[in-house]
Amino acid sequence: MKNKVIFYTYPSCTSCRRVKSWFLENGIPFEERHIFKKPPTPEELKHMSIISEEGIDSLVSVRSNRYRQLGINHLDMKFSELLKLLSEEPKLLRRPIVTDGQQVAVGFNLDMLSLIAKRFKSKKIV
């Protein structure tokens, strides 16, 4: 996860398309990962929750249909169980997620994207 920008995306997601366009317009190299075909691993999610200002809560989509269907309350779960569930059920994740291993941006958060982009602006696209 280090030394590159990983962009977890879903093609029909409006915010995902906005982030991708912003990266391309600003010459930011990134590795695009389809969040449903290759979701973040529990280890990646753990790392992102550690470096995120809001912890794991910033990644969980409590308003998603899947969250309601499962009838869960992630606050009542063990951390390790939640990480495993989020990796197995990526519809529970907010989108897009962008990380460089040191910062995490969820959604179209221009301030966080700009912080991440500063380190990668001059590098070639992966």
From TrEMBL:
Q: Which InterPro entries match?
A: Arsenate_reductase-like, Thioredoxin-like_sf, Tscrpt_reg_Spx/MgsR
Matching Pfam families? ArsC
The family note in this entry says:
Belongs to the ArsC family.
What PANTHER family would the database entry show? ARSENATE REDUCTASE, GLOBAL TRANSCRIPTIONAL REGULATOR SPX
User: What name does the UniProt record give this protein?
Assistant: Transcriptional regulator
